[in-house]
Amino acid sequence: MFAIQNPTNDLEFTDIEVETIAANFNTRHILKHHQATQSNLSQQTNANNLKNASWLHFSCHGYFNLDSPLKSGLQLGDTLVSPIPKDTESSRLLKISDDTAIDLEKCLTLDNIFDLSLSNCRLVSISACESGFTDYTNTSDEYIGLPSGFIRAGAASIVSSLW
After folding, report:
1. Which of 6, 71, 86, 134 is least buried, going by the fewest C-beta atoms within 10 A?
2. Which residues lie closer than 8 Å to 124 by C-beta, 6 or more apart?
3. CB of 153 closer than 8 Å to CB of 113
């Protein structure tokens, strides 16, 4: 099992959720709170643990970007930017209030997920808002969202949430 646990440290029951699930696995690797960053996820040991896990569990904030689905993702630690710098490229930021944004380069975006190789993964569970959304305005038979990204990466099954 590989898990991301409450990277923003503001989700009330996330710690209990991940610890309860992890207790069922002999081998588990959990990036908790401030450790669950894009830079830590990219470190070789963590990248290997992610790639080789049979079950992935993400318990964090999620978002779906209707304007650019490839920028949809899971919020990791150290992603909030406040105040928003005027010189930062606007496509890099997802504005969440007048003076606060999420730095998409520090998130696990759908674009990043497409690059993963998860052939050992039997289940991805995503306990995050909007993680099951797809572009409902598009009548295409291709559904672009986090679940399809994990399936493309090789995961056999996905459980995600809409709200």
Report:
1. 86
2. 55, 56, 57, 58, 118, 150, 155, 157, 158, 159, 160
3. yes
Please answer whether residues 9 and 32 qualify as being in contact, where contact means their C-beta atoms are separated by less than 8 angstroms: no
Q: For 127-162, what is each residue's pLDDT tens digit?
A: 999 888 887 777 665 678 899 999 999 999 999 987
Please list the residues that pair with 124 across neighbouring strands. 56, 158
d(CA 78, CA 47): 18
β partners of residue 123:
55
Cβ partners under 8 Å of residue 33, min gap 6: 5, 6, 7, 9, 77
Residue 157, CA distances (Å) to 34, 55, 98, 122, 153 in order: 28, 10, 38, 6, 11
Which residues make Cβ contacts (< 8 Å) with residue 90, sequence separation at least 6? none
Per the document, the length of the chain is 163
Q: Which amino acid is at 26?
A: N
d(Cα 160, Cα 148) in Å, to the nearest integer?
Answer: 11
- What is the mean pLDDT, run by run of 10 residues, along the chain of 163 residues? 96 95 96 96 96 97 89 94 84 88 94 95 95 76 84 96 77
Q: Which residue has the tokens 């991301």?
A: 4
